[in-house]
Amino acid sequence: MKKILNISLVLLAVSLVPSSFAWDGLMAMDADNRNVGRGEIITYQGHLYGDRPIEGEIVSVTVFEKETKEIILKLDSSPEPGSVEYFENTAWPFTFKVDTFSKGFVNGKTYVVEAKYDDKSTKLDFFIQSDSEPTCLKVLGDNQVLVFTDKEKYDQGDIIRVSGCLSKQAFSKATSITVYDPEGNIIGNSAFVPNSDRTFSEEFVINEKFGLNGTYSVEVDAGGLYSTTKSFVVPEFGSIVIIILGISISAILIKTRFLKPFNNF
Q: I need a surface site. Which of 22, 128, 156, 246 has the fewest CB within 10 A?
């Protein structure tokens, strides 16, 4: 009898172990755009509904071509607590982006984004328009490089995105990006590899290196022969300066208001 009891306890323990480590919940996912042109960024918002995520676990994301199943990229996304309620449980969102400037994406193809968490998964596809060749490629001369920035004016902490196109001759050269301050000093330089369709896209942060007020420039150089410059402005009164100025003015007004009666004595 004791032997039978021991065996029963072992079987019960074995049956309980998998469930104690499994995540019990549902996955869902949506995107801000599912019909895009090359060069666009798709932002996916996912949700884990149910039990709290297993400590140390991540959401594994794979993007592959729908017909051939060829994997284009893989990435991990860590779930973070959200405030959305799902019945009596809390939704834990995860967010990631797919940049169709990246290598491997082809016009006129459908791609699938698959997210997995523990033993659960969810899928959502998107289509790259067949007529979405970057316009700048159509107007390039033989020895040209075209460069664009996503804005004309930036504040401290902003992210600037530099993108553009290379002519066939420029595409065969080594390429680099250089950033100059308003006085012409180099404050940043890095080499980059353009995409197979002769486009490129790079990002950097407006940080303490951009300490001078005025117009900065980004130069893209292809082998020293084909370079072009795009300018942008860091305003004289950025958001931080405005806050400090506002606090100073408020302090002066308060001081004047409360000290003025005592000046009459």
A: 246
pTM listed for this prediction: 0.44
Q: CATH 1.10.510.10: does it fit domain 135-234? A: no
User: What is the mean pLDDT of the segment spanning 65-73?
Assistant: 91
180 has pLDDT over 90: yes
* CB burial of residue 106 (10 Å; 0-12, 13-18, 19+): middle
Q: Please tell me the distance from the alpha carbon of residue 194 to that of residue 176, in angstroms, as a whole number.
A: 10
Residue 103's DSSP bridge partners are none
pLDDT higher at 122 or 242: 122
Listed by start position, the domains of the chain span 23-128, 135-234
pLDDT at 99: 79
Q: 208-228 burial by CB neighbour count: b if 16+ within 10 A, else e?
A: eebeeeeebebbbbbeeebbe
Contacts of 207 (CB under 8 A, 6+ apart): 156, 157
CA distance 107 to 105: 7
Q: Which CATH superfamily is domain 23-128 in?
A: Immunoglobulins (2.60.40.10)
What are the E-state strand segments in the chain? 25-31, 35-36, 41-50, 59-65, 71-77, 85-86, 89-90, 92-99, 110-117, 120-128, 145-149, 159-166, 175-180, 186-192, 199-205, 214-222, 226-234
Residue 19 — φ and ψ, nearest 5°?
-70, -30
Whether 135-234 and 23-128 are alike in CATH topology: the answer is yes
**47 beta partners:** 28, 93
